[in-house]
Amino acid sequence: MSKSVAYSIIMSVWTLSSLLSLPSLLYATTITYKYADQGHRTLCYLIWPDQALGKSYTDHVYNIVFLVVTYIIPMSCMAVTYTWIGCILWGSKVIGENTDPQNHVIKSKQRVKSFLCYKCHFRDSFDK
Predict the structure, then answer these.
(1) 116 lies in a domain?
(2) Is residue 112 in a domain?
(3) Out of the domains of life, which is the source (predicted)?
(4) Which of 58, 60, 67, 101 could form a cystine bridge with 48, CB 3.0-4.6 A?
(5) How many helices (H) does the chain have, and how many strands (E)?
(6) Which structural domain, as residue segments, surrounds residue 49?
(7) How many domains is the chain built from?
(8) Which helix (H) or strand (E) holds 31?
(9) Can you give the pLDDT at residue 94?
């Protein structure tokens, strides 16, 4: 990967994350609720210009885009990448006799396989 490609990827990630957080900067406000026991709680809400709190179509679309960009796309990329790595590691065969360096490589592949299993388990624990 060249320097310019790496720079472009980094700038794209920063630009996308800035655009994704821009609505929070523009439409966030705090609302303080006072209780009968003299207590109070201040909460931060996104108040969109199109509707009242909780009834905004823009808020619904924003949350779907936020879910796709911050969860579904990264998890899909990791699933494809780990599947590809797993297929390469599981599909490779040792040719000839097993020497000590080859046995070391096989053991390291087994460690990566177990890491992939742990990663899949970690991902699945958030889907429930």
Answers:
(1) no
(2) no
(3) Eukaryota
(4) 58
(5) 4, 2
(6) 3-95
(7) 1
(8) strand 28-34
(9) 58
Distances (CA, A) of 11 to 15, 17, 61, 68: 6, 10, 25, 20
Nearest of 89, 70, 75 to residue 120 by alpha carbon? 75
Distance of alpha carbon 27 from alpha carbon 78, whole angstroms = 32
Kindly tell me if the per-residue pLDDT of 128 is higher than 60: no
pLDDT average, residue stretch 48-70: 87
Identify the pLDDT of residue 65.
92
> Regarding predicted confidence, which is higher, 53 or 14?
14
Q: Band of the pLDDT at 22, cuts 50, 70, 90?
A: very high
In a domain? residue 118: no
Distance in angstroms between the alpha carbons of the first and the last residue of the chain: 37
Distances (CA, A) of 95 to 46, 84, 103, 105, 114: 61, 22, 12, 13, 23
Looking at residue 24, the DSSP 8-state letter turns out to be H
